[in-house]
Structure formats: structure tokens, C-alpha cells
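Format is chain and fold; as here:
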Amino acid sequence: MSDPTPFSNAPGNVPKPTPPRAESSTALLSPPLEAETRQTHSPLQVWMHRISVFLFVLISAVAGVLLIILPWTPEWTDNYLLLSFPALRPVVSNGFFRGICSGLGLLDIWIGFWEALHYHEQQ
């Protein structure tokens, strides 16, 4: 008896075909169909992507440094924009508001450097 299932030869019992094991194990490991149909990028597109990532990191770093330093300088409260809205001056000069702006600056720097560290080119 080579068949381990009982009653496999009973009338009306049709054996179920089993899927081949090689296909089922490689189906889990095969790359998705999008990976097979990827287009190769031209060198111009690669360099444009590199430049855009560089500019994003640079702008994020500069804006972050400005948001960290600028709220604690006198120019933050003594500027032309706040002269026309005197009711905003106490809000802007509040330490809590300045801390929020500095925290956003730190977040901005972190996002920029995270993008730089996790940059990878399409292959």
C-alpha cells in the first residue's frame, strides 16, 4: 500500500490532484510582476533624481537651521510683518510658540537627513 490515505480506492472517491511542490515554494520567493517589467532609466533621469534629492536635503537642512535659531533672535518679534498685526506679537514672542518652531526645525533637519541616508537608485 503506497497510498497513505485510507479509503482512497473506494467507489466515488476521486483523488485530488496535489500542486507540485516546486511551483508552490518558488511562487512565494519569486519577485512581483512589476519588478520584471521595470524600465531602465536614462542617465539624465538618474541625475535629475539625484539633484532633486540633494536639493530636498539642502532645503530641509537650511529651513531647519533657520527654524531652530531664528525664533530666539530679536528679529523674530521686531519685524515688519508683526508691525501691521500687533495682536500677534504676544503669541509669537511666547516661549512655547518659539519652542514649537524650534522643534519643527529639528524635525525638518531629521527628515532631510533621513532622506539622504535612505536614498537608493532604481536598478
About this structure: Residues 43-69 form the longest helix (27 residues). The mean pLDDT is 81. The chain is about 60% helix and 0% strand.
